[in-house]
Amino acid sequence: MRYISLAKTEQLSKKDRYGIPVQDAQPVFSYPDEPDQVDQACYFTERNQNITQQEPNATIHQSYLVHFPSNADVRINDKVVWEGITLKLQKA
Question: Which one Pfam family would you cite for this protein (predicted)?
Answer without folding.
Answer: DUF3599
